[in-house]
Design a protein that fits this description.
Elements: H1 7-24, H2 30-46, H3 52-76, H4 89-93, E1 97-105, E2 108-113, E3 116-121, E4 130-137, E5 140-145
Parallel strand pairs: 3-5
Antiparallel strand pairs: 1-2, 1-4, 2-3, 4-5
Length: about 150
């Protein structure tokens, strides 16, 4: 186990392992830790007498720096998505026409969305009425009544 005595090699192995883990379970986070581990591998090559506490502190610091740089990068250059509302269920519901289950008022009510029920607020609507979802406040849907057709 002679290789255990070579911290630069261990840090570089950790960097490769973290990089592979990022590829297997993508989440765009482990890549930043892999970069920090690779930097520590290089630093322990330059400073072979760096104690373990210093190495761990350096890894923590470089991890923070890498994550902050990565966050800034993704803010400046966002990744385009074919379905930008994929993980925003409420935004996907805007415009849907749903049925009132419990009368809706400014104080609350419930509507049926698909096979579930959601809390809702909006202008008065009796049970059984059809309303359109216009947005949400927290986990409560904002609804409005459908326009009535003129009677001839």
């Amino acid at each position: 186990m002679d290789w255990l005595q070579h911290p630069p090699l261990l840090w570089l192995i950790a960097a490769v392992a973290l990089g592979i883990a990022e590829l297997v379970v993508p989440g765009v986070f482990l890549v930043f830790l892999a970069v920090a581990a690779a930097i520590m591998g290089g630093l322990t090559l330059l400073f072979p007498d760096l104690p373990l506490a210093g190495q761990l502190l350096g890894f923590a610091g470089w991890s923070a720096v890498a994550v902050l740089i990565g966050r800034r990068w993704y803010q400046d250059f966002p990744v385009e998505s074919a379905d930008p509302l994929l993980n925003d269920r409420v935004a996907r519901l805007v415009g849907e026409v749903v049925t009132v289950v419990e009368p809706v008022s400014d104080h609350g009510g419930r509507v049926r969305v698909g096979d579930g029920e959601w809390s809702a607020r909006g202008p008065d609507a009796p049970a059984g009425a059809r309303v359109r979802i216009t947005g949400a406040t927290g986990a409560t849907l904002c609804v409005e009544p459908l326009p009535t057709l003129p009677q001839n």
